[in-house]
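FAQ
Q: What does a multi-component entry look like?
A: The components come first, one per line:
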Amino acid sequence: MASIAPLKQVFSRSTGATARRGFATTTRLDASYGFIGLGQMGYPMASNLRSKISSSDKMYIHDVNPAVTEQFAKEIGNVEIAQSVRDVAEKSETILTVLPEPHHVQNVFQQMLRPDATLAEAPNNHERLFIDCSTIDPKSSAGVANAVHSSGQGRFVDAPMSGGVVGARAGTLTFMLGASEELVERTTEVLKMMGKRTIHLGPQTSGLKGKLANNYLLALNNIATAEAMNMGVKWGLDPKTLADMINTATGKCWPSEINNPVPGVSENAPAGRDYKGGFGTRLMLKDLKLALQAGAESNIVPHLGAHAQDIYSAVVVDPACKDRDFSVVYRYIGGKE
Amino acid sequence: MASIAPLKQVFSRSTGATARRGFATTTRLDASYGFIGLGQMGYPMASNLRSKISSSDKMYIHDVNPAVTEQFAKEIGNVEIAQSVRDVAEKSETILTVLPEPHHVQNVFQQMLRPDATLAEAPNNHERLFIDCSTIDPKSSAGVANAVHSSGQGRFVDAPMSGGVVGARAGTLTFMLGASEELVERTTEVLKMMGKRTIHLGPQTSGLKGKLANNYLLALNNIATAEAMNMGVKWGLDPKTLADMINTATGKCWPSEINNPVPGVSENAPAGRDYKGGFGTRLMLKDLKLALQAGAESNIVPHLGAHAQDIYSAVVVDPACKDRDFSVVYRYIGGKE
Amino acid sequence: MASIAPLKQVFSRSTGATARRGFATTTRLDASYGFIGLGQMGYPMASNLRSKISSSDKMYIHDVNPAVTEQFAKEIGNVEIAQSVRDVAEKSETILTVLPEPHHVQNVFQQMLRPDATLAEAPNNHERLFIDCSTIDPKSSAGVANAVHSSGQGRFVDAPMSGGVVGARAGTLTFMLGASEELVERTTEVLKMMGKRTIHLGPQTSGLKGKLANNYLLALNNIATAEAMNMGVKWGLDPKTLADMINTATGKCWPSEINNPVPGVSENAPAGRDYKGGFGTRLMLKDLKLALQAGAESNIVPHLGAHAQDIYSAVVVDPACKDRDFSVVYRYIGGKE
Amino acid sequence: MASIAPLKQVFSRSTGATARRGFATTTRLDASYGFIGLGQMGYPMASNLRSKISSSDKMYIHDVNPAVTEQFAKEIGNVEIAQSVRDVAEKSETILTVLPEPHHVQNVFQQMLRPDATLAEAPNNHERLFIDCSTIDPKSSAGVANAVHSSGQGRFVDAPMSGGVVGARAGTLTFMLGASEELVERTTEVLKMMGKRTIHLGPQTSGLKGKLANNYLLALNNIATAEAMNMGVKWGLDPKTLADMINTATGKCWPSEINNPVPGVSENAPAGRDYKGGFGTRLMLKDLKLALQAGAESNIVPHLGAHAQDIYSAVVVDPACKDRDFSVVYRYIGGKE
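Then the predicted structure of the entire assembly, as tokens:
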């Protein structure tokens, strides 16, 4: 796998935050983090963050569901449950948001940044940094970024992630970062506590754009793999032999190699366990739709993507396929299991 | 890249033909090879074969164009130009065919194997082995195999290849073999003189089926990559940064990594030289159509493939795209170069 | 609307069966009819048949659900409930079948026509006529026809219908007939008691082929209309004004004129009542799949049909769309209601 | 065919312009017309206009090709060849433009309406009326309309037409009008001299929007018809019998009835003369692309249209299909002729 380090990838460095702070413990000021959105992804991410920051650093958490913050405080500890997202913003230098839809992100930022009552200076006189890890459309994200920047109350970057719940728990997520150059290092130092890699793709919204382009490609390659495997199997080929050949040849792709849709071909792939777990069809469809909408806004008429949207739309509601890994497309098209 | 050796791949072995023959030079009987079809692929393949077999082995060549066999005899030497394909068959134990279309293969075999005048016993009393490296539809191939086997005049295997003209010249082709188990070793010893790998996919027709499944997948992944890169670039992302990210992520595939359609992204890819060279759009369309037809014969209704066929049909006749590498789809959809 | 009478359409004639029989009442032998399958379509068809034949004619009915035959006997009367489909066949000259799937048709005919125990001669020494009004694939239908004809126990024709439950009740169905020339008149005399028009499309299976070709076209035109109306409405046009224009122009088609998918445009169309009633999405998908499969069997690779199949597959399981008229595609694609 | 008169269609009336003018000949002021763009459509339209207006009315013509205006002056007579489009605008009350692409329309209007040198008052102190009959995208059209209106030098309406060269010659075009209510009557009086029907679809741009929606539908219905007819014919049905059945059934549409793609089915249809004449594939593709782009600007992700674009893109460059009526799609998909 080609390393892309020479370009823009920002790995953790020995001169990074932890090291520097370690050197300066006597004079170091405690940092303060806010975390909004403790869902399936946010909860384990916040947990990893809490375990990596200094124990004297402060962390403020909030979720629409109070039971979740209670549970987090009990299970993980050393956090303060904020009464509101405004409260989180008041007390934190660095605020992370992990939310499902554009309107959630918009609402949270409207509550945090009131035009009539600007936030007090952040602890340590540090400029506030808002890191939004939600996967939303670039246009909505740009709108929120603009509101933050024009209010003068902080800086905003987009950092959607890939790696799923498994990666969130293991702290091995990849973040796709859209941020001004001067914010890349500071953001990366935070994100590396929850993931293994941060890739800076350009100015704000670039993280989201990169994620949508990648997932558009994934959505299509996944269907293509299901169709090609289905053909081979229907023609009488052994699926493992076929996949092995493809994976030394030009058909090789992530769905053929790592997540093969035919049960038993890729070790540990969801196909082997009735397509349970993995990357859910609803999330795939959500990302595909976001890509298509962002494409339409740029006057891009899709080709295969228009068809793929209809395939996933059928899959997400098919009783035999719904709530399963997106490789279940193989079942949808009548593949032999 | 995952090795698939434990399964069915048949690498050259030190106990292979050359070694054995070397050991037994004094008593060894000279082998005889026939080669029919000296086109863009066949010519360099035959050349490699001639250079790898023993100089005392015989080789008989034939092509519809006599100028080509003349040239081969002059450039490569140590061959005999056969007057007809029947003549090739009479004199050879092992006959290779590399032809463009099903009807060419059918015609050549009708001329070689007459029901009224069976071939004399092959040199060395060896059972004749017919290795067809053409990419044709499995049904036609099965028909020819059936004719060969029922005539009792030899054995027939299909061994389409991938690797293109570059691989044919360098002797680094990959062969996808459809053959009875007992023919695999003998066939592989021949093919390894023209390629680096032979993958046995099952009984006769399996080689073709594997190739068509792989190329169906490739045809779709290529369009998907062109579309995803186009989106990213139109949205303002740097194409190399985007591709580097994708290639560490789930969108990674052969077209994104090795043959990226955006000029300057993949080193040495055709995109960087006005899409010249590479895997021609006509060949891609031909293989895709073969896959779709073979699918229809198995009652498989395609999904994305139906659309892809129309995209490549437009590309092959578009003046700005025709006669170029199939990654030129990026240009067809309006990608920024 | 162009009349097609000069070609092959067979309207009822004043010299038709009823009239002729009326003329010959004193010597006329009573006719006997069997009716198998009293579902949503079959029940009203059988009811119309019973009301049109002479009161002294016999009618034998059967359904897998005994409650339905009981109800029919009570509501409509003058019928005999047969104990088995074999019993129906024994007692009837003319047997109609209206069944949902190929396997139902196959099962019923296997029970009726045993190789070991052929049917007794039909009443009046009339050759038995089997009229299958089910919509199944032409291949299965040909198989059943072949079994009937080779058994020598009767003649078989296919006569799928259009017009829906409304047409079945009103007796205004259109039948698409696939039958040998010599059976056309006899079949038409029966069918006209349940519909207003019988179109003879050619030999056996032609009725089904015609219906599938028509419904393939309908499936696509319906989506196309939904998309075009959606565009116009999203662009701010008044839907009725737009539809009126289209219906005087080249976009005019059955879905734009009679069954417009935008509520309030076509009078009495299902769109105006939450898409209730009409031609169900499941039936549309069933017919489309039959057409695509029959196409694949003839090596036809579909173009738009492959995509349409995925659209209807999504629609039939979408909670907001399922179990509604197929014009609900407009809702599925996000049309403004 | 449903009349839409009660809605918005504006037929010629006995109280229309000609009648009124006839009544008032003694005091009537001569009218002045400008006509820009004498191409395949514009030339016969201008000719019809010249023959319908009063012989004392003035007409000023212009085309990029001076030979064409010379020819018009010779053939039709009673016109003045304007030196420039500015000259046309100076001298005319009513200016018609019939141009191929948005940039042509934009250029012509930039030359006519200079911000630094507004046009003198029009003859008869009449407010200038610009009627653009070009088929361009609604956005560009709105831009031009805005420039006209904000300059205060006249009023602008869009009136794309359907009916082709045949309709232009016969004066039987249908115009789809996008105009403010108060301009509808005046515009209609002009257009009726070149066509048989004007349909007012709403404010400026609505004519174009209506045309694009209609032609989007037509583009799809045409492919659908070609596919359905191909199926039926491949299955052995007689094409005329099949089409006759479809045209009494739910598959009926303009391409099945008036312009059937199978040679010999629709009388006088282009299919019967090697698809020559009719509505050219390039124009169909142009309109489809305009519809898709205008759709994308409204965030509409297409379904079947994305695929159709690729089909027509293949057709327009296929040597056997190019420069023919768009029903030649039937040939492209391999239909039996």
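Q: Is there any commentary attached?
A: Sometimes. For this entry: Chain C has a mean pLDDT of 91.
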